[in-house]
Amino acid sequence: MSANRPLNDAEAAAALDWYRAAGVDLAVLDEPVDRFAASVVPPRSRPAPVLVPQPGSVEMPVVAASLSADPAETRALAAGASTLDELRAIMNAYEGCTLKKRATQLCFADGNPEAEIMLVGEGPGEQEDIQGKPFVGRAGQLLDRMLAAIGLDRTKVYIANMVPWRPPGNRDPSPEELALCAPFLHRQVELVAPKFLVTLGNVPTKALFETSLGITRTRGQWRDLTVGSHATRALATLHPAYLLRTPGAKALAWQDMLSLKRAIG
Ligand code: URA
Fold it and tell me: Within 10 Å of residue 168's Cβ, how many Cβ atoms?
């Protein structure tokens, strides 16, 4: 195949599909920028160019972070919600998180707001972004089977995520995005007031347990946590997406499910 031959329709569709799967789902500029050429180190004899922004030049945002937004703002907004419906409306109207600009819609929560058990995941994936509900893709189907194994279903649990808008390409939410969205999740916990809270995987466990330890060290552990102003018993367990990739770890998740079953009695 000639390197410079234009792609035919099938090849172009396959390339786009590959980009989309890799998380490249947004065109930032009309013209591509060759970052490899830009990063070539100049020869020693030539002085390195000094990069001075030119009038009218376009600055490329490299990191998708909500750097200009302030968690104090989301904290104040979240505090103004006295019901889950109000909180959902406030989050829908909020424009400060860059994740929202790329997401299809808000993925607020699923399940029963009266439930004693609240599950917290990381953030919506592709299917959750399309349907606007947490854990409806393959990982969600596994989560449903895990819950069913201990007699639970979505009428008996409430499910939300640390960030309510899909991070592009399913990357982890950045620390800035987590800090910005945390007050929304904390208010959700306060309003649902669960007796038991289960963190699914690394991201919510690190954030809510306030630990830097990885999930393989923290899973299976119960902690007394205060989230927002609500005190709850919290259990860390493995993320169902991790279990899909690592079926050998399902035995550990099963132990955690049994531990949850014993706790709820
Ligand atoms: N993974 C998550 O953490 N949350 C979802 O809603 C879906 C997949």
Answer: 17
List, chain by chain if needed, residues with CB within 6 Å of any ligand 1 atom: 121-125, 128, 134-135, 139-140, 161, 241
Identify the CATH assignment for 106-264 out of 3.40.50.800, 3.40.640.10, 3.10.180.10, 3.40.470.10.
3.40.470.10
| Calpha distance 213→209 (Å, rounded) | 9
Distance from Cα 10 to the centre of ligand 1, integer Å:
32
- The tens digit of pLDDT for each residue in 53-92 reads 444 444 444 344 444 689 999 999 999 999 999 999 999 9
Report the predicted TM-score, pTM, of the whole model to 2 decimal places: 0.78
Give the per-residue pLDDT at 9: 84
Per the CB < 8 A criterion, the answer to whether 50 and 79 are in contact is no
Where do the structural domains in the chain lie, given as residue ranges?
106-264
**For the CA of 128, the nearest atom of ligand 1:** 6
